[in-house]
Amino acid sequence: MFTVTVRDHMMIAHSLRGEVFGPAQRLHGATYIVDVTFRRAELDADGIVVDIGRAAETVRAILVELGYRNLDDEAELAGTNTTTEALARIVADRLADRVLAGELGAGARELDGLVVTLHESHVAWASYERPL
Amino acid sequence: MFTVTVRDHMMIAHSLRGEVFGPAQRLHGATYIVDVTFRRAELDADGIVVDIGRAAETVRAILVELGYRNLDDEAELAGTNTTTEALARIVADRLADRVLAGELGAGARELDGLVVTLHESHVAWASYERPL
Amino acid sequence: MFTVTVRDHMMIAHSLRGEVFGPAQRLHGATYIVDVTFRRAELDADGIVVDIGRAAETVRAILVELGYRNLDDEAELAGTNTTTEALARIVADRLADRVLAGELGAGARELDGLVVTLHESHVAWASYERPL
Amino acid sequence: MFTVTVRDHMMIAHSLRGEVFGPAQRLHGATYIVDVTFRRAELDADGIVVDIGRAAETVRAILVELGYRNLDDEAELAGTNTTTEALARIVADRLADRVLAGELGAGARELDGLVVTLHESHVAWASYERPL
Amino acid sequence: MFTVTVRDHMMIAHSLRGEVFGPAQRLHGATYIVDVTFRRAELDADGIVVDIGRAAETVRAILVELGYRNLDDEAELAGTNTTTEALARIVADRLADRVLAGELGAGARELDGLVVTLHESHVAWASYERPL
Amino acid sequence: MFTVTVRDHMMIAHSLRGEVFGPAQRLHGATYIVDVTFRRAELDADGIVVDIGRAAETVRAILVELGYRNLDDEAELAGTNTTTEALARIVADRLADRVLAGELGAGARELDGLVVTLHESHVAWASYERPL
What we know:
6 copies of one chain form a homohexamer. Chain A is of the alpha+beta class.
């Protein structure tokens, strides 16, 4: 099994609903360092898992949709508790949609899966893994 | 599959038994940077894998039991070669006991597994993965 | 010259005023990984620059004052553009006040200076250095 | 499941064939930070996954074969597009050969698998995982 | 004193002249993780050291001039031993020229100095510091 | 001003004397990630600050003298509280002696200074800077 991972980041404001979150129930924010891993059983004819340039651009496009925003005000996220875990899934699902729509090229449809990891600090991170 | 990871550390003295360990047979020590990963198929009603605050406190409690000690003198570890691999298992097993005892809340019993990674330096680390 | 550095973090929301900030003029947020360096020409009688435990607690107290908040709503910061550079100075100045008030012990008044570095992502950080 | 990982690096020149690589079709180079993970279900009698000293020496020997070279001129790599993914596999396969030849000791034949990760920068890395 | 640092990278091939370099006299290559620090005594009216967006673009432009190339073939570097130290100076001097030419805005001429650090691996790096 | 830095590590046991150290008064241990920085105003004829290979070997030799030991039992350290700060100075002073004795070559006597940083964990480190 082969993987390729690219790293990028986004900066957002949000608040979390639920007593379990303590002071994080207040409006605050986070930098998420975002690692996106593409998994594939065999390399393609160029010897790669995915066109890393297009992969990075697509990840960037998803993070631009979310970044420099107050996620509490985003209509698409209404009703979602935007925990680090939940955001990892949102990034992964949006990326899967783009891959399946051909944005990373026809070959990328042979990818086996994705893992998205969001680092919220140097001492805490969360990930979501899904098939493609 | 979702994961959440928290990082902490402990500082211990110990010696290792066996020719394979060379100079590490002498009494020496280590800082272990400890990454604890909680795995779970679906998020709970709050949108999380685990209450990260309680998780961090529980990991801290386990590391306080071991840290700032000479592990060669700990009765509970008598007969154990306290390699990085073995210590990763000890931390994971002690954490599993606490999770199953309800220390992280009733919901944490739905966790699927744990991974504990101990970094002994910037160039070497070991991990132990177990179901819950 | 000796230094000791401790690392901690805070998570805040804010917006920045000025065209130069582009999309960061919108309400967003950041995790700041905060490195605080204490400088001193000679070690004290215990062989240290500063009591690292008390230093870490004091840094923590300052970050709790700022963290899990929308800095745009903080009365004490009204009129301040809370850039990473400006926040580094705020943390350093608040820390200097506490050191001079004796919170780190009498010996800490012999510190020569402080450096506070705030990492806003894996690719950007800012620092402020001042004498004591 | 237990793992042990050791980190080393190599510095090489190469060029990549295929339009997908853009400017990387020109002769350029890379530092690869190389993480080699050894997987094993149970620890051996010494309480370890593998003799970490011998493991590090063997990884070093493989990286010396490749490092400080222009990979475009290496007869053994003729016909191979030396992408980060492909190099991860070459390192893993050469290591597997050495393990199976007994270079890490008789016990190392009980290893379950290897993962080799090559970091080409702070924002991109690739890995190859194989059984033993 | 305030500083702001941005991180980027470049990948190059080169060889080094002189017995002291051992195997690095052969054609090989490197990824350089490049940290550029801007120093300034006081913040400007926006509360910043430098427009970080323009700073990052300018650093990027300099690294594009050098990256994905065999430095042994660059006419501008003929006669220069392209050690990590020497490359740090080249990046710093080219950046200083652009700052003085107004590429980072008129205010950037009030910068006091630059530090450029090139990380050639996880265990070795070099820097060059100069006034502006 | 130019600098070159090399990174290595050592693993030791020790205890600290003084109430300020709390639980660290017990016998425990540490991994120190050791960064050694060499400073020099101008590069030598080879375009370097120091022969990085010899520098790394010399640092290694000093760390071998200290590593895999209980520092409480070392005659040369009797009477020294082996805090991270104090150990940074010991490494720097031993290195300065070797540089002045010509171990890094005649040219290394033109070095202006050294900085030794010991990282005791991911959240705490200390350094000592001295002229040569």
